[in-house]
Specification:
globular, Tumour Suppressor Smad4, alpha+beta, single chain, 2 domains, 15 strands
Length: 301
């Protein structure tokens, strides 16, 4: 097997560098021809990976977090070239959806060597200018995208606790946002939602923010996306409900609306959406599911 291993030295955490080297050593020891692909920026990393794919590889692996995995997804969607993940980032939410989160570098590399694959869905975002991008886990807009803004700007602390602190700070200025939402449901019918929402989230995978199960029932192989809408309910009530979000039991609350959808259009003023932890575009955006569009090295669920 000929494999390109993508790692991103521009990532905030340096832990992934050692994981990449360990994974490469394990892969080579098992006869996998492994080339390291490493750029100084996201754009450079994408260009180098694209070149490696054009030159011919049997597989791609990523050592890093959701942002670096997302770079690979853009290049691999629809190609049939399998993707392996060595989870070494802050969030690792896409790895969570695939049952890889707890694997160390050696175990993740071993999963690639064994060759067991699954073919999963991706979500596709279409911007107003017609450009598109894919994501694997969750798209956040509204309150949770503002949390991402704040967490990304924080220099301390490192790791998942930064996201939790950002949530508490954003509660101080929490307000409803006027959304217009049009969803094509699983049965093909259309449903519209208008009025203030605290947030609108579209999940292919289950979690964001390093394991927060915002879309607890999402399934990356069901050909659908999970839409989660939260109505304003006052800061104190929503603050009390936060523990239920962390347990994934929030979807039964009266402030929360859930739908299984084929596609959804989100529109709201002044809101930038995040997907796989990084900005993906300002609303309005249209998100649809692309079934069975990515092959991954992962154990069967």
């Amino acid at each position: 097997m000929k494999l390109a291993l993508l790692t991103n030295p521009a990532a905030r955490s340096g832990a992934h560098t050692g994981a990449a080297m360990e994974a490469a050593e394990h892969l080579r020891a098992h006869g996998v021809q492994t080339s390291i692909v490493s750029g100084g920026s996201a754009a450079e990393s994408s260009a180098l990976l694209r070149t490696a794919i054009d030159l011919g590889v049997d597989a791609v692996a990523v050592s890093g977090g959701d942002g670096t995995v997302n770079l690979a997804i853009q290049e691999l969607a629809g190609t049939g070239i399998p993707l392996g993940i060595i989870p070494a980032g802050t969030g690792n939410d896409f790895a969570t959806a695939l049952g890889l989160r707890q694997m160390d570098a050696a175990a993740a590399a071993a999963a690639i060597v064994t060759g067991s694959t699954r073919t999963i869905d991706l979500a596709r975002v279409t911007r107003e200018d017609g450009s598109t991008a894919f994501y694997g886990s969750v798209l956040a807009s509204g309150f949770d995208s503002k949390v991402n803004d704040r967490a990304n700007a924080m220099r301390w602390p490192r790791g998942g606790s930064r996201y939790n602190i950002a949530i508490l700070i954003e509660f101080l200025t929490l307000a409803g946002i006027p959304y217009e939402i049009e969803a094509v449901l699983a049965d093909g019918t259309t449903e519209r939602f208008t009025g203030d929402r605290v947030m609108a989230t579209v999940g292919n995978g289950t979690s964001y923010g390093g394991g927060i199960p915002i879309c607890p029932d999402a399934d990356v192989e069901d050909g659908l996306l999970d839409l989660i809408l939260v109505r304003p309910a006052g800061r104190l009530r929503l603050l009390r409900l936060l523990p239920r979000v962390y347990r994934g039991t929030h979807t039964s609350l009266e402030e929360v609306t859930t739908r299984r959808v084929r596609s959804v259009r989100l529109s709201a003023p002044g809101v930038t959406a995040y997907a796989d932890g990084d900005p993906i575009g300002a609303l309005p955006l249209t998100i649809d599911v692309v079934p069975r569009s990515l092959t991954v090295f992962a154990p069967q669920p």
